[in-house]
Amino acid sequence: GPCYCDQACARTLDCCHDYAQACPVIPCVVSQWSAWSGCAEPCKTTYRVRMRHIIQEPRNRGEACPALEERAGCVEYWTQQGAECQQSLIPALITTGGFGKARKKRAAADGNERAGYCVEFQLVAITPGCLHSHHSYTRWMHYLREGHTVCVECQHPALHSPSQHCYGDGTGSQKNQLLHWQAVGNHRCKGTWRRIRQLDTCSCPSVHSFLFI
């Protein structure tokens, strides 16, 4: 008789002799990730979203579908009406230096690219949450280590127009003063650092390079 693709037969041990051929395992197939959305709300620390959809549902005990939505932290410095946000964002908000490549392309296309600068900090304290980030977009947090010197770049649009500084860069702080930072994308990853110096010409190393948000 016909072979019915009933997955329960694997547990009851009464599958047809040709079950594997007639009912092949078909895993879930999903699309590529969409582009990241804009920030959910302007002028505050919030999140952006990317989505993917199911192309093929799993069948015959095939591998289940992965998550269809991912969120990552972000900050938008302009309101929907085009006005620049004015509030101070403290502590310093940082992300991976790799995020700057897309940001620079966007700024150049808009004709808004301005010269930035870098600040070197010595990391003093880091919360354990930085090491417990397993999403692909949070792996950069594993490079944060106590005692290490890190290089953080300030560039458009985080470069605040009137002051020509990024929020939380430690300008005006006293020598050896502990300053606070927060990793965007994981609220459990934060800590303190000391400002070492400002570099008007950036030459940040690729591994320990970060970006003000």
Automatic annotation (TrEMBL):
Keywords: Disulfide bond, Glycoprotein, Signal. It comes from the Eukaryota. Gene3D superfamilies: Thrombospondin type-1 (TSP1) repeat. InterPro entries: SBSPO (IPR039942), SBSPON_C (IPR056801), Somatomedin_B_dom (IPR001212), TSP1_rpt (IPR000884), TSP1_rpt_sf (IPR036383), TSP1_spondin_dom (IPR044004). Pfam families: SBSPON_C, TSP1_spondin. Residues 1-28 form the SMB domain. PANTHER family: RPE-SPONDIN (PTHR20920), SMB DOMAIN-CONTAINING PROTEIN (PTHR20920:SF4). This is SBSPO protein. It comes from Rhagologus leucostigma.
